[in-house]
From TrEMBL:
Regions that span the bilayer: none
PANTHER family cross-referenced by the UniProt entry: DEVELOPMENTALLY-REGULATED GTP-BINDING PROTEIN 2 (PTHR43127)
Gene3D superfamilies cross-referenced by the UniProt entry: 3.10.20.30, P-loop containing nucleotide triphosphate hydrolases
A UniProt-annotated Pfam family: MMR_HSR1
Record protein name field: TGS domain-containing protein
Gene Ontology MF terms in the entry: GTP binding; GTPase activity
InterPro entries hit by this protein: Beta-grasp_dom_sf, DRG, GTP-bd, P-loop_NTPase, TGS, TGS-like
Species assigned in the record: Pelomicrobium methylotrophicum
PROSITE patterns: TGS
Domain TGS positions: 262-336
Length: 336
């Protein structure tokens, strides 16, 4: 990190790192550029920020030809409890999984490079949803400059592979190399905060990753194949065996994501009113009553005086402060 960065710049950068919504990220990038001290030592960083602003603006609009929009947007606005990107080599079954898990009509075909643009869809789990984003294959034969940018809004990745493909290890290594070049690292560590990256590089991205060994219906012994694959490749990702054809493993995905992302559901109620059971707010483990208030309304977080909480922790409507950590299933009554 260059020297002489001001607290104002650092605050804008911290907000940028935290933001997942692409429009919000763009606003923070502009703010970073506005407040960055303009001197020789920050030339590189300034250029980097300008490039990101240009890329992200283009990605948000979708490709244009002669002023007309020719394709869908290249980054997907996050919705639901978390955004999960489907990544992997061509033909592994990403779109087939997407279609089965979310009911989307993602295009599936028996040849590689079928998917061309990001396709969002919602995977229901109990009373919440995860957003799954189907993506084009990552492969050296088909480099897509915007693909890494599309990952900046994701909270985690599903790395979909076909263990029956003899080129599988090589393909995943090529994918790693492509992402590394774009400063994106897939990590097996789900307990890290997503997006929390290298202190010295605001544009580095770390995404917790689950290996999805698909097309298990084609393998005589999928567990054995998976064990051999992990041993041969040295990859440490947690793994799930699936088949988009038979549905094997698909029912476990929602629970797996829920627990490994540390999702916490909070039900709010207004004083004297019943609990709003229909649509919980979703947070991550470690977040507080103040974070709940911010989700309800950003002014509410500022005006919050205290909350009353009912939940599994044993609280039965006791008063708590804004720093109180919420737990899954808590009912929260906010008092401004
Ligand atoms: N037997 C079997 N075939 C599958 C499975 N999943 C996908 N397929 C088939 O594999 C082929 C490729 O599937 P897609 O879902 O298009 O794969 P993709 O990873 O999205 O491919 P690209 O978009 O080209 O990167 C299609 O013929 C699918 O029917 C599976 O679990 N079992
Ligand atoms: Mg596809």
């Amino acid at each position: 990190m260059p020297a002489n960065l001001t607290p104002e710049y650092k605050a804008a950068e911290a907000a940028f790192r935290k933001a997942r919504d692409p429009r919000e990220r763009l606003e923070w990038l502009r703010e970073m550029l506005r407040v960055i001290p303009k001197h020789k030592g920050t030339d590189h960083l300034q250029a980097d920020i300008k490039r990101r602003i240009k890329e992200l603006s283009e990605e948000l609009e979708g490709p244009r030809k002669g002023g007309a929009r020719t394709a869908p947007a290249l980054v997907v606005r996050p919705e639901g409890a978390a955004q999960i990107a489907l990544l992997g080599p061509p033909n592994a079954g990403k779109s087939s999984l997407h279609a089965r898990l979310t009911g989307s009509s993602a295009q599936v075909a028996p040849y590689p490079f079928t998917t061309q643009y990001p396709e969002p869809g919602m995977l229901p789990y109990e009373d919440i949803h995860f957003q799954l984003v189907d993506l084009p294959a990552v492969s050296p034969e088909h480099p897509l400059p915007w693909l890494a940018g599309a990952l900046s809004s994701a909270d985690a990745c599903l790395l979909v592979v076909d263990l029956g493909d003899p080129a599988c290890v090589e393909q995943v290594e090529a994918l790693h190399a492509f992402l590394r070049n774009k400063r994106v690292t897939l990590t097996e560590r789900w307990e890290e905060c997503p997006g929390e990256a290298d202190e010295s590089d605001p544009f580095a991205l770390r995404l917790p990753t689950l290996l999805v060994a698909n097309k298990a219906d084609r393998l005589a012994d999928a567990e054995e194949e998976l064990r051999a694959f992990l041993e041969l490749s040295g990859f440490r990702y947690p793994a799930l065996i699936t088949s988009a054809a038979t549905g094997r493993g698909l029912g476990e995905l929602g629970r797996w994501l829920f627990s490994h992302l540390g999702i916490v559901r909070v039900y709010t109620k207004a004083p004297g009113k019943p609990v709003e059971r229909g649509h919980p707010f979703t947070l991550r483990r470690g977040q507080t009553v103040e974070d709940v208030a911010r989700l309800v309304h950003k002014d509410l977080a500022r005006q919050l005086r205290y909350a009353r909480v009912w939940g599994k922790s044993g609280l039965q409507g006791q008063q708590v402060g804004r720093e109180h950590r919420v737990e899954d299933g808590d009912v929260v009554e906010l008092h401004a």
